[in-house]
Amino acid sequence: MNENDLKKFVAFTTDLLNSIKDKQEYSWFIELFKEEIVDSFFNSQAILSIPNTNKFDAITEKDIIRVKAYLNFIDKKAINYGKVFYKNIHSTELKTKLIEDFKEMKIALKQDDIIEFGRRLCLQIENIFNYSLNALNIHNLILENLAYYQNLQPNWAQRPFNFYQSFFDRIGQPVELSKVSFNTKSIFLTIHFNYRITVQRLNELYFLRNIGSHRNQLNSQEMQDLENIKKSFDKHFSSYHETLYSIVTNINNI
Questions:
Q1: I need a labelling partner for 167 at 20 to 30 A (CA). Which of 52, 66, 91, 147 fits?
Q2: DSSP codes of every residue in 163-188
């Protein structure tokens, strides 16, 4: 390793760290880099005993390969998990979005960031809901079966649902899916594809998605709700994954 190569490597590493230092999803890597390289390597007795002018000479090619391995391996494991989980998704565009959010969900979990975990999980569900409803051509579907969808009552509901009112405005124009409530989309798809999920867990995920996306000051009730979710997270963790799994496996037009 000559001095010029080492300087190029330092410049590369500096540029990389500057590009990701303010991105929350990479905070785990910054911490790992600090622990493995800065704290462990440069603060070791062997390095401290070397004069400052010769510290570059103490960096071996093995050390550089090790750092590059960390840089090249960022997110790979989480991405591979996502590829396996979503291997049966037909739409390439949808699959790409889902794997990206799945990756960020796994990284958030590693960081014990419950809000970001819930937000990323819920974003996956929202993308699946929207894609499925578009694939169903939801507005035409309702119009073609208007009487049915104006008074649809599954056996588990206390009252019927009027989906025409949810997907059309007061003058009969289709409402954009982005403006249809998350809860309405979920109910419609559970009826259409005949599956059940734990509503409380889904509501908690949507709550985390909202506070994670908007980052507004929480009121006292929201603070209490968030604290309750955090306290019971370990208990309900598997249920959150089960919710996503049920949606992915039962909505069969994605």
A1: 91
A2: HHHHHB-TTSPBPPGGGS-HHHHHHH
For 58, other C-beta atoms within 10 Å of its C-beta total: 14
Nearest to 74 by CA among 117, 112, 116, 31: 31
Cβ–Cβ under 8 Å, residues 204 and 158: no
How many C-beta neighbours within 10 Å does residue 72 have?
A: 8
Contact (CB, 8 A) for 253 and 189: no
Residue 178: CB partners within 8 Å, gap ≥ 6?
130
What is the rounded distance in angstroms from the CA atom of residue 246 to the CA atom of residue 167? 24
Convert the pLDDT of each residue in 142-163 to its tens digit: 999 999 999 998 888 889 999 9
Give pLDDT tens digits for 4-56.
666 667 777 776 777 777 666 667 777 777 766 666 555 555 555 545 555 55
Q: State residue 152 phi and psi, 5-degree precision.
A: -100, 120
